[in-house]
Structure formats: structure tokens, C-alpha cells
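Exercise: predict the fold of this chain.
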Amino acid sequence: MTLHSFAGIHPTVAPSAFIAPGAQIIGAVTIGDDASIWYNCVLRGDVETISVGARSNIQDGSVVHVTTRRWKTEIHDDVLIGHLAMIHGCIIESHGFVGLGSIVMDGCVIESDGMLAAGAMLTPGKRIGRGELWAGRPAKLLRHLSADDIARNRAGAAGYVELAKLHRATTTEPQG
């Protein structure tokens, strides 16, 4: 079972969303149209809410959580979150990008077309501005993204919508 109720609250998943086998969606989680949650992800909305917007993707092995009565997690539309990311009590605006193995901590905001580089750690309360690239541990502004960088990131998110449709059509749960 991929979807789990918690304290009587059930996840809400759009019919067109793709939830990969092995992903675990718990409690107050809402997943929008054509969003994709990939293999072995955990979205645990047990003590606050998690929302995942339309066409956003959370790639393999990522964890999304919240902070009790303080920080919910909002992932807006067309967001790309790389493999093994840790997303915790933050806001990622539409077209935001979180690189492979990155950490986004409580109270952070990644604005539209903002990018956190692979392996970076965005410490509590930091804000990545529109079109900025932050990198490092702790993350700091590295540079402003070019129009080509932004277009490439947006294409990556759109590509995951198509890949999710293919996986949804061809992936089956193991028979036991």
C-alpha cells in the first residue's frame, strides 16, 4: 500500500498523478495533476500539510516532511526535485529546482526559477531569489541563471511529466 491515512486524514492524489511503486504517501498530503512521486520517496504529512503542485516531480529516494505546528511544505507547479533530496518545512515556488542530494530546511523559500545546486544545503530561513543559483554547504549565491539555464530547467520538469506517463502505462507492482 502506497497511500496511508494518519489520524484519520487521507492523502489526496489527482487521478493523472503518477505514484511509483515503493513510494510512501502519509497523511495530509495533496498531489496535483500530472505530478510524479518516484520510487522510494516518502512524503510524510503527519504533523502539518504537504502540497505538491501540478506537473511537479519528486525523484527517487527523496523525503518530504514538515515541522509540527510551524512549517508546512508547499511545492508549487512545475517544480523539479532531484534524487535523494531532503525537503523539510519550506516553500518551493513554481519552476523551482532542487538538485540531487540537496537539503532544504525549515522556513526556506526557493522562488520561481530559483535553483539549489546538487549536494547543497539551504539552512533554515534562507531565500533563493528568482533566477538565482545557490550552491555549497551551507548554500550561498553562486550566480544568476541565464535564460538558457532557466529554459533547460523548465524542460527538465516538463520531460518528467512525459516520463511519468510512460512509467504509469508500463510499470506494474510485483506479483507475490
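Check your answer against the key: The chain has a mean pLDDT of 95.
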